[in-house]
Amino acid sequence: TKGAIGENRMGLVEQRGRAAPPEGIDSENSDRMTIYRAIAEKNGASLEDVQKLYAQRLQSDASAGTPIEALTSSNSYEWKVK
């Protein structure tokens, strides 16, 4: 809610702005990638497809005020505040 981190288009937490990165971002992203790889392997899907699917879900579930890297109507991505 402080806007220091956001949910990017690949289902990972990303630092926003110039503030020092909050503790735990690398650990969170490492955990997420472990899960994404397992799901991709189990389902015969590409890692990128799994990440994009989970990114949509994480962004949908994010609290109001969370920065998200959202797909625009012109098929590009831009950061916005949910």
Commentary on this structure:
The chain is of the alpha+beta class and about 80 residues long. The protein is about 40% helix and about 20% strand. It is built from 2 helices and 4 strands. The chain has helices at about 25-45, 45-60; strands at about 5, 15, 65-70, 75-80. The strands form 2 sheets. Strands 1-2 form a two-stranded antiparallel ribbon. Strand 3 (about 65-70) and strand 4 (about 75-80) form a beta hairpin. Helix 1 packs across helix 2 (about 45-60). It is globular and about 35 Å long. The N and C termini lie close together (about 10 Å). The mean pLDDT is about 90.
Q: What would the keywords be for this entry?
A:
82 residues; alpha+beta; two-stranded antiparallel sheet; two-stranded antiparallel ribbon; 2 helices
